[in-house]
Amino acid sequence: MTASAVLVDGASERQLDVSLVSDASGRTYIGGQYVAYPFHLCRALRNLGDPSSMPTLYIQSCSGGLFQGEDLRCRFRVGPNAHAHVTTAASTIVHSMEQGTAAQRVDIEVGAGAYFEYLPEPMILFPDASVQSSVFIRAARGATILACDSFLAHDPKAAGKVFREFSSELSVMDEEDLLLARDRYRVEGCAFQRPTPGVMGSYRTQAGFVLVRRGGPIAEWTDRLRDTLTDHPEAYVGVSALPNDAGVWVRLLAPDAAIMRNVLAALWSRAREMITGVVPTPRRK
Predict the structure, then answer these.
(1) Terminus-to-terminus CA distance in the chain, angstroms?
(2) Residues 126/98, Cβ–Cβ less than 8 Å
(3) What is the tens place of the pLDDT at every residue in 28-67?
């Protein structure tokens, strides 16, 4: 286990707890962290082409994925006017399970004027895997958050097997914990595997992408994200405004992981440009 500037407010309930704050010059730094098995948090990096105030943080797993019975919890607290990009070094493998399930919950709290990107690589679901994925976003007025949640199935022995179940929840709340928007779904592997119209059809991957910014030019952003997707006709994508003027939501289906990643990268690039005026450079993985 590694720990630095341990966060005492509920840190023991989580395996990863990170605080990001802005200094007097406007640069964001890690103000506190608690990191326990199975996570490893790399040092903050600065990327050419990013806003000068923004570090990139990579999360790594020391265990090789999610296993039966695990309940992993992460929290990112982003102070007022802080800026940061958080991603994972690789996809998260959800291993086969004889029974039970695994869970991963991510809590994101973003202060006024802050800009935060949480864009992990997809979960890879092995045969008989069962997982509950939850992302809870608390956004102050004037905060901006980009986040995604994605998965695909993998049968390493090509035996015609599939995961058991994938459940996803993404909730957006204000600073008083008033619910602004929620997306929740559950898909069973057998339904995912069948080429059923209206469920998955011929598509093999699924992702959600959200831009949270209360009171922004939602209609304009929705149109611009839709325009971005005209270059990706191979994916099936829907873009809509979130309720309560909370932001923009995107759901996409793609035939394979490479196409899904390309579409998510295009959405990220356009959203970053809309908010900051700067197009991001690709992250090395």
Answers:
(1) 24
(2) no
(3) 999 999 999 999 999 999 988 888 889 999 999 999 999 9
Judged by DSSP in three states, 177 sits in coil
- The whole-angstrom separation of Cα 264 and Cα 261 is 5
Q: What are phi and psi of 217, to 5 degrees?
A: -75, 75
> Could you tell me the pTM of the whole model?
0.93
- β-strands 102-110, 130-139: how paired? parallel
Residue 185 Cα distances to 132, 163, 169, 188, 199, angstroms: 10, 16, 7, 10, 12
Q: Are 127 and 98 in contact (CB under 8 A)?
A: no
- Residue pair 271/285 in contact by the 8 Å Cβ criterion: no
- Distance from C-alpha of 84 to C-alpha of 130, rounded to nearest angstrom: 31
Write out pLDDT tens, residues 142-170: 999 999 999 999 999 999 999 999 999 99
Q: How many Å is the Cα radius of gyration of the chain?
A: 18
Dihedral, CA atoms, 192, 194, 197, 200, nearest 10 degrees?
30
What residues does 265 pair with on adjacent strands? none
DSSP helix/strand/coil, 24: coil
d(CA 17, CA 30): 11
Per the listing, tokens 């929740």 go with 184
SS3 132: strand
